[in-house]
């Protein structure tokens, strides 16, 4: 057993332990920290597999951006997770059954790739391009349709999350584009014709002056 295999089993054990602690930790801050540890060990496994781009992307995007945002929101809101965890052990058998089914489905799909006796050989041109460019070519050529399906699913998930959490406020001013498009010029603008000069009526003033002189 070489050092690469030892490191793989070590990082895998840490990854599984950190993933388990994410769902069992009582504090949301501790759960987020364990999730950062899980992402870091996953990036180490990517490095062992010589996928440097995926490892760096996992560290920069998830640990450097997403998890920092999660920690900021969790620590700012100070969410009490005791009420959320009520009934955790009650629903544990159902959750374990669903997790086992998902694990079996993933194993049935991925075991075909794990049965390879050796890694596929790359051509000289692919070796010169680097794994990042080869990965991009594979994603946007061979796996283009799965990528588009995943993008559509993520877009639907974002729209659903916004629709579920959107709440109207009385003190907030909102715009209705459909009503703004229907507006006509006559509804917003009225032109009034005003004469350039106005004649001064002097008769009342002269009458008041005559009455003052008589008195």
TrEMBL record:
<dbReference type="InterPro" id="IPR001457">
    <property type="entry name" value="NADH_UbQ/plastoQ_OxRdtase_su6"/>
</dbReference>
<comment type="similarity">
    <text>Belongs to the complex I subunit 6 family.</text>
</comment>
<feature type="transmembrane region" description="Helical">
    <location>
        <begin position="91"/>
        <end position="114"/>
    </location>
</feature>
<keyword id="KW-0812">Transmembrane</keyword>
<protein>
    <recommendedName>
        <fullName>NADH-quinone oxidoreductase subunit J</fullName>
        <ecNumber>7.1.1.-</ecNumber>
    </recommendedName>
</protein>
<keyword id="KW-0472">Membrane</keyword>
<feature type="transmembrane region" description="Helical">
    <location>
        <begin position="55"/>
        <end position="79"/>
    </location>
</feature>
<dbReference type="Pfam" id="PF00499">
    <property type="entry name" value="Oxidored_q3"/>
</dbReference>
<keyword id="KW-1133">Transmembrane helix</keyword>
<keyword id="KW-1003">Cell membrane</keyword>
<dbReference type="InterPro" id="IPR042106">
    <property type="entry name" value="Nuo/plastoQ_OxRdtase_6_NuoJ"/>
</dbReference>
<feature type="transmembrane region" description="Helical">
    <location>
        <begin position="143"/>
        <end position="166"/>
    </location>
</feature>
<feature type="transmembrane region" description="Helical">
    <location>
        <begin position="6"/>
        <end position="24"/>
    </location>
</feature>
<dbReference type="GO" id="GO:0050136">
    <property type="term" value="F:NADH dehydrogenase (quinone) (non-electrogenic) activity"/>
</dbReference>
<keyword id="KW-0560">Oxidoreductase</keyword>
<keyword id="KW-0520">NAD</keyword>
<keyword id="KW-0874">Quinone</keyword>
<comment type="function">
    <text>NDH-1 shuttles electrons from NADH, via FMN and iron-sulfur (Fe-S) centers, to quinones in the respiratory chain. Couples the redox reaction to proton translocation (for every two electrons transferred, four hydrogen ions are translocated across the cytoplasmic membrane), and thus conserves the redox energy in a proton gradient.</text>
</comment>
<feature type="transmembrane region" description="Helical">
    <location>
        <begin position="31"/>
        <end position="49"/>
    </location>
</feature>
